[in-house]
Write a structure and sequence with these properties.
The complex is a heterodimer of chains A (about 450) and B (about 500). Chain A is mainly alpha-helical and about 450 residues long. Chain A has 2 domains: about 350 residues, no CATH class; about 55 residues. Chain A is about 70% helix and about 5% strand. Chain A has 19 helices and 2 strands. In chain A, about 50% of the residues are buried. The C terminus of chain A is likely disordered. Chain B is mainly α and about 500 residues long. Chain B has 3 domains: about 130 residues, no CATH class; about 110 residues; about 240 residues, no CATH class. The radius of gyration of chain B is 21 Å and the shape is globular. The C terminus of chain B is likely disordered. The chains are: A mainly alpha (about 450), B mainly alpha (about 500). At the A-B interface, strand 1, helix 5, helix 6 and helix 19 of A face helix 7, helix 9, helix 12, helix 13 and helix 14 of B.
Chain lengths: ~450, ~500
């Protein structure tokens, strides 16, 4: 077997193992013959280990042979004159570490979940979402074309939103899930536009051609102004996915999901996907200093915002989520400044640390007591502020406690005016239909016949 | 013209008519459903055979063997070509699944005999390329929903007004087109009535309110089967696209685009599930029209792909809503209803079909939407942005509806409201088609590309510069004459 054949085989394993997991767990669930808990855990472990071994094998080959750029083509999805859609993956210095990290952390989480969610209602639903997430992360990490990236991106978004709303019998998580989904849709729309723009400008969506080979030394074939416009769309997509300001409000809301999903998605992998996208698109930043400056400013602003807000959180998962966001902001700033390897290492280390912290979060008090027992004394309490200090920083405290009023501002200045316009249009449409029908004929909709329920539920809307 | 090996088209149309006669004599609604399912099932097989036969005879267009219309009228009325070949099985499938999945509580309201008549008319419409028979069939297609409205004693004025206007304008417009002859560029006097007719039938803003009235007052099944085959798009392709100059198509495209975004926004604020369905349909139907009016191979291919995906996805979405309505009554979207525990399969199918309709990756609509946006950006960048915006808003509306219907405190019921086997089969079949088409989109897209090239080929005869961009640069795609005689 030649080296090329081995590489292709490993690449296919990396891509196919999470996909086959989706099929093996998802299809039986769809036809109401769900796979049992133990079998599900075993399938998850097999798929994760297979993927991890293949990714490590790929890494080994690349290190031993000095290869820096290994494309693997799964197939031509669509080929018509003037348009090609390929399912291609690229294994390079950026994608391989992220793919390895994905399989590694997902494997850790699957081991954790096998006990944490054992026999819990909805465990099968969790695993379906988990499999979708794993497939999405793998596809997005190793994507060589922007369409493949978009496929993974959307799968990550859908599975994340569904997991935020996992405890769907309570309305709080469901509303938060919808909010997450709404922000993700904005992010998805931006990425889709970037994809189309790249197709339009370049004729195809191959990232390795448009953005150059051999990350991070590649050079974009786009001009400076083209880089700016495509880069702005990619930045918008990254802002939504990585909860950069002004979209930071969804991150603490996402903590309504089960702890393993918070750990893997919002603490470790999902929240870094935006930063990864910026790393992948870093040749565009080289082409456009304005874009690079914007990325740096947004990253620093997010870091400052999250650092302030994290200080006043009263529950551990929210505090961790903002701590996580602080680091993501710094990573983005590093990307903007041009420290690509530093950003990648920062990303990998931060994801591992945060996974550990999130997984230990439910046992925080127990850990503290164990530590005190080991030390043989009480840990020193946090320093208390004086009355004068409190008075001086009350406005900042309020601002941080309300999480910078970001969600409220988005609701007040974007969501409510837009929904208000559409509600007004809806009322006018009903009047127009009544006018055409004549008043006597009007029967009204089911909602109209139930005046109590007719008030639109604003909280159910983004 | 090439001939099929068997008169599949005539058989596909005659069988439902014959079936309607039989079913109308049955008093027992369970038996009527069984007969209708069998008849529409055979019709489905026949349409698939026609599609397959078209490939076997190695032609881009073919007519029935032993064509009756040819013998009686001296010209062939029914033909199958690249455009209609997959549309016929799709429409037959939609009728088959809708009839089969009709729940027990809806049996008395849903007329199976008239549904078979509607199927025959829809199949005949999609098999017809001759203008006057097509206009007649489009007129006949209006009747089954109208008959149901009258029978149920529900308001029908808005529907009747719009449909009368549509049919009148279509006739006037085509008289104008014929009076001016086929060799010259048509005047606005001929084109405007024709375009207005298509806009009305396609429910483009501000002519869309008839869809709301129809859905509000008719049975959901009949509404679904009248809307989702998108015969309006077929009328646009056959009657308007070949004879209209670019600027007219783009003007229509702008109106469709506005409708797509506007109705997607309205879908976000709906408090009634049927109205939500209507606005989602309106948005998608408008997006399909945007593709039809693009007049470039990529854009038109995208539009044709979205046509198929929208038909399948929205039918699946509608069937899940219909199944829920059959169990819980009319559905309001004002609070969380908590139906998940009772109907988890429906919940999953609702989500998958809804997301498939907005072109979620991995579903059949993804490539079509991507092509459509790509084609749109090639013509006019803001069009692409608006299609993406409409798609994003529709996606939010779908998930919002999913969460309102299925999440929340579990609904308490003293009786079993689980999904029946027939309903499960219907929605799951659609779901697997949507996912299967998403995993292997190549053949479908290529077939649609051939159809797009064929359509643009017929247009190129009258408009040799068709496909020019606003800045005057000619589309890089080779146009139809070079590609119309492709190999299968």
């Amino acid at each position: 077997m030649t080296l090329a054949a081995v590489i292709t085989f490993l690449g296919i394993i990396v891509a196919v193992s999470p996909l086959s997991l989706v099929v093996m767990i998802g299809v039986p669930a769809l036809i109401r013959r769900p796979v049992g808990d133990d079998a599900t855990v075993r399938l998850v472990q097999i798929a994760t280990i297979l993927g991890l071994v293949a990714a490590l094998g790929m890494l080994g080959i690349m290190l031993s042979t000095g290869l820096r750029h290994v494309p693997v083509e799964i197939g031509h999805w669509v080929t018509i004159p003037g348009y090609h859609l390929n399912l291609r993956f690229i294994f390079d210095r950026l994608s391989v570490p992220l793919v390895v990290l994905t399989f590694l952390l997902c494997g850790v989480i699957s081991a954790f979940v096998s006990r944490y969610m054992h026999r819990e209602p909805g465990a099968n639903r969790f695993h379906v979402c988990y499999a979708l997430f794993l497939a999405g992360m793998t596809f997005a990490s190793a994507a060589a074309t922007i369409e493949t990236l978009f496929l993974g991106w959307e799968l990550v978004g859908l599975s994340s939103a569904m997991l935020v709303a996992f405890y769907h019998q309570r309305t709080g998580p469901v509303r938060n899930g919808l909010r997450v989904w709404t922000i993700y849709r904005i992010s998805d729309a931006a990425l889709l536009m970037a994809s189309v723009a790249l197709h339009h400008l370049h004729g195809e969506g191959d990232l390795t051609i448009a953005l150059g080979r051999n990350w991070p030394d590649g050079a974009s074939v786009l001009t400076s102004s083209q880089s700016l416009w495509v880069g702005l769309l990619i930045l918008l997509a990254a802002m939504g996915k990585s909860a950069l300001i002004p979209f930071s409000g969804w991150l603490p809301r996402a903590m309504e999901g089960p702890t393993p999903s918070s750990a893997i998605f919002y603490g470790a992998l999902s929240v870094h996907l935006g930063a990864y996208l910026l790393l992948r698109a870093s040749p565009l930043l080289d082409q456009s200093p304005l874009l690079a400056a914007l990325v740096t400013i947004i990253g620093l602003a997010t870091a400052a915002y999250a650092a302030l807000v994290a200080r006043v959180q009263t529950d551990i998962k929210s505090a961790l989520s903002f701590a996580s966001l602080t680091q993501v902001g710094l990573i983005v700033a590093e990307i903007g400044i041009g420290f690509r390897y530093l950003a990648l290492i920062h990303l990998l280390g931060h994801a591992c640390l945060r996974t550990l912290q999130f997984l230990r979060a439910p046992a925080l008090l127990g850990d503290r007591q164990s530590l005190e027992n080991a030390l043989g004394r009480r840990l020193a309490p946090a320093a208390e502020l004086s009355a004068a200090q409190i008075a001086r920083s009350l406005a900042w405290y309020r601002w941080a406690f309300e999480r910078g009023f970001l969600d409220q501002s988005l609701d007040r200045f974007v969501v409510e005016p837009v929904l208000g316009v559409f509600r007004w249009c809806d009322r006018q449409e009903r009047r127009w239909v009544k006018f055409l029908e004549g008043d006597g004929d009007v029967v009204g909709t089911a909602a109209e016949r139930q005046p109590v329920a007719a008030t639109p539920a604003l909280e159910d809307l983004p | 013209m090439s001939e099929l090996h068997f008169p599949w088209l005539e058989f596909s149309i005659a069988l439902p008519i014959l079936g309607a006669l039989i079913v109308s004599r049955l008093n027992e609604s369970f038996t009527a459903r069984k007969w209708t399912a069998v008849i529409s099932g055979i019709t489905l097989i026949s349409t698939i055979a026609a599609w397959e036969d078209l490939y076997l005879v190695h032609a881009t267009e073919a007519a029935d063997r032993w064509d009756l219309s040819s013998a009686l009228l001296g010209r062939r009325l029914l033909t199958i070509d690249e455009l209609s070949a997959p549309l016929l099985p799709m429409v037959a499938l939609l009728f088959f699944l809708t009839c089969m999945a009709t729940p027990r509580t809806k049996l008395r309201r849903f007329s199976f005999a008239w549904t078979l008549v509607a199927e025959a008319i829809a199949l005949a419409t999609l098999s017809c390329r001759e203008p006057w028979p097509l206009i007649t069939l489009l007129g006949l297609g209006i009747l089954p929903p109208y008959r149901e409205l009258r029978n149920r004693g529900r308001p029908s004025r808005v529907y009747v007004l719009h449909m009368l206007l549509f049919q009148s304008l279509l006739i006037i417009g085509w008289i104008g087109v014929e009076a001016e002859g086929s060799e010259q560029v048509h005047s606005l006097i001929a084109l405007v009535p024709l375009l207005l007719a298509i806009l009305i039938r396609s429910a483009v803003f501000p002519f869309h309110t008839w869809v709301l009235e129809l859905a509000e007052n008719n049975s959901f099944g009949t509404t679904l089967l009248f809307l989702t085959p998108l015969t309006c798009a077929y009328a646009a392709v056959r009657l308007v696209v070949p004879i209209s100059p670019d600027w007219v198509l783009r003007a229509m495209g702008v109106m469709s685009l506005f409708t797509a975004v506007y109705t997607a926004g309205l879908a976000l604020v709906q408090t009634d599930a049927r109205r939500l369905f209507c606005y989602l349909f309106l948005s998608h139907s408008a997006i399909v029209l945007v593709g039809m009016e693009m007049a470039t191979p990529i854009g038109l291919t995208g539009g044709l792909c979205v046509w198929l995906s929208t038909g399948l996805a929205l039918t699946g979405f509608g069937l899940t809503l219909r199944a829920l309505e059959a169990r819980f009554g009319r559905l309001t979207l004002c609070q969380h209803l908590g139906y998940y525990e009772h109907t988890p399969t429906l919940a999953m199918c609702f989500l998958i079909t809804g997301l498939a309709s907005v072109g979620f990756p991995g579903t059949i609509g993804f490539v079509g939407t991507e092509l459509l946006i790509d084609g749109a950006v090639g013509v006019y960048p803001s069009i692409g942005v608006m299609v993406v915006l409409a798609s994003a808003l529709n996606g939010i509306a779908v998930v919002r509806a999913y969460m309102l219907l299925f999440a929340g405190k579990p609904h308490e019921s003293t009786i079993s409201v689980r999904i029946s086997t027939r309903e499960r089969f219907a929605v799951l079949l659609l779901v697997f088609l949507l996912l299967g088409g998403g995993l292997l989109p190549g053949p479908g897209v290529q077939s649609r590309h051939h159809a797009a090239v064929e359509i643009l080929g017929s247009r190129a005869a009258l408009w040799p510069n068709a496909g020019q961009d606003f800045d005057g640069s000619v589309d890089s795609e080779p146009h139809a004459p070079a590609e119309s005689s492709h190999e299968h």
